[in-house]
Specification:
Radius of gyration: 16 Å
Number of helices: 6
Order of helices and strands: EHHEEEHHHEEEEEHEEE
Structural class: alpha/beta
Helix content: 10-25%
Shape: globular
Strand content: 25-35%
Oligomer: single chain
Length: 213
């Protein structure tokens, strides 16, 4: 299966992700509606997701600091990644769909995963100055999901696809390879940044996720 973008996450403040919050107001303002929400038991996070035909955006926020800081989860670096302003860590995650996973990896697992399931995480993402790059357990695009969530895509607002227009980080890490795979249109070195391009008819809307953290 060809490697493709599955989803992008960005750590945001919990209040910003909830109704009336800063990020929700931005997304409401361009006609996006949450597709689904989920609590990640054992990881200390929850999310609000916005699904497009090919991929989805995940607003990720901390709901249990003790779970997040559990020693078994230390390698994911989420405690630092969720506190960009205090730590300078990169708050973005990029999930790839398809096999084989194109980076040297280690297996990530939490108790909430089904028995035997783990996801590959790029060893290069041990450096929290680069995005958290990992393999999605999902194998299908959102428009091919069969559990009902496909009906919650952003079609009412006229949106179709979501792509990464530009991504930046302090160090190259896996970014050059992401561009080579067609996952990102452009890669830059510098402050953490990630610009999404949302296609709507013949036009597009760009969102700089770094504005939200």
């Amino acid at each position: 299966m060809m490697i493709a973008l599955d989803h992008v996450f960005v750590f945001v403040a919990r209040d910003d992700a909830l109704p009336g919050g800063k990020v929700r107001q931005v997304l409401d303002g361009i006609g996006l509606v949450p597709s689904y929400e989920r609590r990640h038991t054992g990881q200390g996070t929850s999310n609000v997701c916005y699904c497009f035909d090919n991929a989805y955006l995940e607003l990720l926020f901390v709901v249990d600091e003790a779970e997040l800081a559990a020693p078994a989860l230390a390698r994911n670096g989420f405690t630092r990644r969720s506190r960009l302003r205090q730590t300078g860590a990169n708050p973005f995650g990029i999930a790839l769909r398809g096999e084989p996973f194109p980076f040297e990896s280690w297996p990530y697992r939490i108790d909430a995963f089904p028995p035997g399931l783990s996801i590959p995480v790029a060893v290069a993402s041990d450096d929290d100055g680069v995005p958290f790059v990992f393999g999605s357990p999902g194998t299908e695009r959102p428009d091919r999901w069969t559990d009902g969530r496909a009906d919650a895509r952003q079609t009412a607002g006229g949106y179709t696809t979501m792509t990464i227009a530009r991504i930046g980080a302090e160090r190259a890490g896996p970014l050059a390879a992401l561009a080579g795979l067609g996952i990102a249109d452009a890669v830059v070195t510098g402050a953490a940044s990630l610009v999404l391009r949302l296609q709507r008819g013949g036009d597009s809307v760009e969102l700089e996720l770094a504005d939200w953290v």
